[in-house]
Amino acid sequence: MTSFLFKFVFRLLSGLPLRWLHGLGGLLGRFIFALSKQYAQRTEENLRLANLVADKTQYAELLNKTIAEAGKSITELPWVWTRPLVDICATVQSCEGWQHVEAAQASGRGIIFLTPHWGSFEVFGLYVGQRMPMTNLYRAPKQTWLESIMCNGRQRGLAKLATADVSGVRILYKALKRGEAIGLLPDQVPGNGEGEWVNFFNRPAYTMTLSGRLAQSSGAAVLLAYAERLPQGRGYTIRIEPLQLDFTLSAPLQINRALERVIATAPAQYLWSYNRYKAPQGVAPPASD
Asked: How much is the pTM?
């Protein structure tokens, strides 16, 4: 019954204009925040401890925007996952930094796109996937019936998916060796043995080492990429910039520093409700100072 109702609402929402969906998203975000105590507490705590604003007034304003943006990230999914690629790409008002992609292609190198839980990473994946082969690492949702909807929405054009396991990593490595692109969510909490504790907004966060290992072993270009959500449903702005990693230092720490800089430009669009600071099963918590 739950899956049937979800699919019905999903199809219904997919026919609405993006501007309407973002308006509904603002309302949905506030509804979820009021309904779920755990969700609200995590959002407030993560945002407050990030120390991105100077006083309580600014924090209250930022929290209010964050709640609305989180709702938009939900209500835009039916539109992003079902509309024709040409419609989705038409909402990208500008793409800054595509020359870095072309430079990597000209050199014959693979490309590692690092896209955080910020703005619309779904739009970015589809935008690139209609221009060049791109394999994105994904983790299956807990609801099995949702996986087919998600995979069908993401695997379009030249975009493909690889599961977040050993076989999936092999697929990513082979794609890089062919000079293709891959996409990773660098702020997704990895499993036991797949990360290290490094600071993220002044707090220890178990951070994946896969990005750095793939870059070092393949010689691929590392590009930080994201799609900023524009106000009033006007679409998105994509930005791409190179990230030079020093492999004599901690790659996860360098990546987190780059993510902090990007997120700080529009912090309300980051998914602060994500349980970023959890210790995965089997992982010892970070050592206290």
From this structure: 0.94
